[in-house]
C-alpha cells in the first residue's frame, strides 16, 4: 500500500489561566504561539516503518511484519478516537518492553506514534513509511510540545490513510480542512495526549488543532475572537518536569484534602472567568491602567493557588521575585514544577 506524502505543522500554546483546574472541569484560557512542531511523512517501499525524532534523540525502525502481529483488528474506528483502547496500549507496552508507569520521553513518543499508526491502519493494509518530527518548542516545558506532536501525528496519519484530504495543494495558500476534519484530528490527537499525560483535559490539543485564543470548559472549545493585544514575556526556567507526574500529583492532593483543594479549583475558575471579562472590556472601551491592575492581581492570585496545588518550583519563585522587583507580575504556565512562566508586560514597558 502506497500512502500520500504530507508535511504538517501545529503550534504550541501558553495557558493564561486555568492549568490543572481545567483537568477537573474548570475553565482555562489558552492561546497559540508562533512556535511550531513540524512533521514530514513520506511513503517508502522498504517494508519498514521508521520514526525520526531528532529533538529527543529517537530514531526507531520496525519491519512491517513485526507491526502486523500487533494488529488491533479494529474496523471502521477512524471516526471515533474518543477512548483509548486498553488492549492495544497493553500490547504496545509489552512490544516496547515497558514495565513502569512513568516512561522516558523517547518511549512515550514512540508509544503515541505506534498507537495512532496501528489504530488508523491496523484494520487494513499497513503501509511502509517514514515519519520525521522536529520542533521549535522546548520539550517538556509547559508550552504544549506534547499536544503539538500529537496533533501533527493525528493529522498526518489520518491524511496518509485517506480519512481526511491532503491539507494543502500547491496552488493554495491556506489549509482547507473543514470543521469535521479538524474535529477528527483533534479527537485522535487527544488519544495521543492521553498516552503522554495520562489524564489530559484536551485544552492543549484543541489549541494545537484550531490555533488562536480559546476558552476551554469540560471539553467544550469556545474560540475567543475579540481579544486585546497583550504583550507577554515567556521565560523558560529550563528545569525539566513531566506533565503526567504533575497532573497525578494534583489529583492525589485533591483526593487527600478535597474540602481544601476544591475551593482552590473553584477560585481558579473564577479567575479565568474574570480575566475573560476584563479582556472583553479591553476590546470595547479605551484600555485603562485599571484593566492592567486587575490582570496583574489575577496573575498573582493564580500563582499562589498553583503553589497550593503543589506545582510550584523555586525557579518559578525566582522568576516571580525578579520580575516583581521591576513591577511586573508572573505565573507559571502549563503544568509547572519548572518549565516556563509568563510575565505580563504593560504597553510601553522598557525593553
Ligand atoms: N518534538 C518532539 N518530538 C518527539 N516527542 C515529543 C516532541 N515534543 C514533545 N514530545 C513528547 O511529549 C513529551 C513532553 O510532554 P509534556 O510532559 O506534556 O510537556 P509539554 O509541556 O512540552 O507538553 C516528551 O517527553 C515527548 O514524549
Ligand atoms: C496541566 C495542564 O492543564 C496543562 C499541561 O500543559 P503542558 O503539557 O505542561 O504544556 C494539563 C491539561 O490540561 O491536560
Ligand atoms: Mg504536554
Describe this structure as you would to a colleague:
- With 351 residues, the chain is an alpha+beta fold.
- The chain is built from 10 helices and 10 strands.
- The strands form 2 sheets. Strands 1, 2, 3, 4, 5, 6 and 7 form a 7-stranded mixed β-sheet that branches.
- Helix 2 crosses helix 3 (105-121), helix 3 (105-121) packs parallel to helix 4 (145-161) and helix 5 packs antiparallel against helix 6 (203-210).
- The model has no long low-confidence stretch (mean pLDDT 93).
- (3R)-3-hydroxy-3-methyl-5-(phosphonooxy)pentanoic acid is lined by residues 19-20, 22-23, 142-144, 146, 197, 200-201, 203-204, 243, 247, 334-335.
Summary of the model, kept short:
This is Mevalonate kinase. This protein has 351 residues and is α+β, with helices and mostly antiparallel strands.
Descriptive tags:
single chain; alpha+beta; seven-stranded mixed sheet; 10 helices; 10 strands; binds adenosine-5'-diphosphate
Question: What order do the helices and strands come in, and which of them pair?
Answer:
Elements: E1 6-17, E2 28-43, E3 48-53, E4 58-63, H1 64-68, H2 86-95, H3 105-121, E5 129-135, H4 145-161, H5 179-197, H6 203-210, E6 213-217, E7 220-223, E8 231-236, H7 243-256, H8 258-284, H9 289-309, H10 314-324, E9 329-332, E10 340-345
The structure holds adenosine-5'-diphosphate (ADP), (3R)-3-hydroxy-3-methyl-5-(phosphonooxy)pentanoic acid and magnesium ion.
